[in-house]
Amino acid sequence: MKHTVLIVEDDPQNRKLLAELLAVKGYRVVEACDGRQGVEQAVAHLPELILMDIQLPEMDGTGVLQALKGNLLTRAIPVWLLTAYAMPSDEVRFRACGCDEYITKPLDLRDLLARIERLFEATDDAPACAGLCPGEACP
Ligand code: MN
User: Fold this and answer.
1) What's the whole-model pTM score?
2) Cα 97 to ligand 1 centroid, rounded to whole Å
3) Which of 105, 106, 111, 136 has its CA 20 to 30 Å from the CA of residue 90?
4) 54-98: pLDDT as tens digits
């Protein structure tokens, strides 16, 4: 089964690089080039992972995080911020906004891919109804 990854990044070069890399690895890739589109694509495609730049036009990464984490449909989707900010206080702030991982640019692509693989291995092992089943039929 193909896992879907949403990339929210306004820099076309960075976005294209990541998208191609993930597509080559067999993932289904959805792209958004600003924050508002990021929220729309997340709701429309319900990706299993969102990789997001923090400095975005229309709505910045913090606003997108708040929108996603405040929506029952999208709140469980892990959001990994990809950002050039390097201050420890920034990481605390972003984590408080609900980001699940915080990855500093320039990206170590090999490490990022390995992390993504581990994330999906973990979710593949979970029961199919995890987070979705209404309760009574859950084994
Ligand atoms: Mn940006």
Assistant:
1) 0.85
2) 18
3) 111
4) 999 999 998 999 999 999 999 999 999 998 876 777 788 888 888
Domain extent at residue 110: 4-125
Compute, in angstroms, the gap from residue 25 CA to the centroid of ligand 1: 24
pLDDT at 139 over 60: no
Expressed in angstroms and rounded, the spacing between residue 34 Cα and the centre of ligand 1 is 8
The answer to whether 35 and 63 have CB atoms below 8 angstroms apart is yes
Report CA(55)–ligand 1 centroid distance (Å). 4
Rounded to the nearest whole angstrom, what is the distance from the C-alpha of residue 125 to the centroid of ligand 1? 34
d(CA 25, CA 41): 21
Count the residues in the chain: 139
Q: What is the pLDDT of residue 126?
A: 64
CA angle, 126 as apex, 122 and 132 as ends, to 5°? Answer: 120
| CA of 132 relative to ligand 1 center, distance in Å | 33
Least confident of 12-16, 80-84, 129-133: 129-133
Does a structural domain hold residue 56? yes
**Distance from C-alpha of 119 to C-alpha of 29, rounded to nearest angstrom:** 16
Ligand 1 center to 3 CA (angstroms): 24
